[in-house]
Please model this.
Amino acid sequence: MTVQRPIDAAQPGVDAVTTRAPKAVKLENVSVVFGRGEKAVTALAPTTLDLEKGAFLALVGPSGCGKSTILKLVSNLLAPSSGVVIVGGKEAKAKALKVGMAFQNPTMLPWLSIERNVMLPLKIVPPYCHRFRAERKGEFRDRVHALLDKVGLTGFGDHFPWQLSGGMLQRASLCRALIHEPDLLLLDEPFGALDQFTREELWAILQDLYLDRRPSVILVTHDLREAGFLASRICVMSPRPGKIISDRAVDIPRPRDIGLIYQPAFVEMTQELRALIAQVRK
Amino acid sequence: MDDELSINIASAALICGFFALWEVLCLLLGVSDLILPRPSDIVATLIDRFPVLWPHILQTLYTTLVGFALGVGIGVAIGVLIGVSRIAYGVAYPLLVGFSSIPKVAVVPIFVLWFGSGTTPAILTAMVICVFPIVVNIATGLATTEPELEDVLKSLGASRRQILWNVGLPRTMPYFFASLKVAITLSFVGAVLSETVASNRGIGNVMMSASSNFDVSLVFAGLMILAALGVALYVVFSMLERRVTGWATRKNDFAVT
Model:
């Protein structure tokens, strides 16, 4: 596998990374503190960050640095202790954007088949929820199966979560995050527990799905190659209490080929990131 | 499958063996009918007196099932109320434990005082005796729901009601059915208890009057009927449980729907 394109042959506008572009997410001086008084733990130091519409942002950093906290803030699973989180022009709790989220664990509901698990967002999120009863055995079912086909889970819709391997569950989890065609995709180390080959396969699948609909994406990961391969922008966070210490664009045209990660320029970029994280960990 | 079959056979053999041993021991030791009638005597009495017993069976079944249904309704309602809120769980628990500690035989006279003898106190006793296990199980099931599963729905913007309906309640089903199997047998105990104290109908009453007439084999016939009814209802709920909560036991033959 070789890639002809040199790494810095940036094509203008490929990933719409310009400061003028409309923002999908804006964090303004947001901090998170757990507990009170002497026992208070600062999970996230005051952080300002924004994400352009349609951009693919990777958050990397040592474990416990508040990467997942940022995702929880954006998905309104957590309220900020100070500052505001703006999603789609409104506060996060207003749910102005359709959000799809994939967690570190696949978190499939064990009493539902894979098909019904993947269909879950269609049952909850408007406008789909209004048609759920009528379409769950028709159009919605076909949609779920089309998506399962794309991630290589053809024929597993009728299986239950415990009948599937970890990698298969992560694929299903990805489907569940995407089934309702979200404007904003939040991925919390979704491939962390997988072997290298499955991971690389899923990177390629995720890239295809991203290029399909171009949602705004925040990917939390500690895999620098994953960040470099998928993202159009990489933010590096310091250890707890976390804050963003580096913000760089990745100007590699898409679609990217997996062979890319062995090219010298790519390796150099990941080395730089690695050195940066190693430095702040001390 | 073969394992299951052999367990069933062994189980049936144990029951038959128990009655056979009882029969043989009574014959060998010459135990009087007035002390311990033989199973064959009891079965004969059962068949002989069945037309008289039948309305009483229906009465006991009726009070038990109505009391059980009320108990399930009330138990689920209270269980959901205190299970969804950590504060309510803490606040209400001591009161619930207090209520459950009261021997239910002590409340029968109160019900009789309020509602007279007969059907009503039997239903109420069956109800109060089965409420507590249901409340505790529903509340525990809801309170121990994995936050990660709830997060899946929260991140989609689901309301509290949607989360309860799609995660909390399905997650609680195994707990609920475990409590139902306990509750149905307790309901029988409650209904028969009340019939024994204050009623002129039902199996409890039949056993009471039979024992005062030294009709010992009829007393045992009553016990047999109660045991059989208890087993039958237990089986019904076990079957229902297997259908609804097969995901929790991971049976290979669990129907894929």
Remarks:
- Residues 37-249 of chain B form a domain with the MetI-like fold fold (CATH 1.10.3720.10).
- Chain B has two domains: 1-31, 37-249.
- Residues 160-197 of chain B form the longest helix (38 residues).
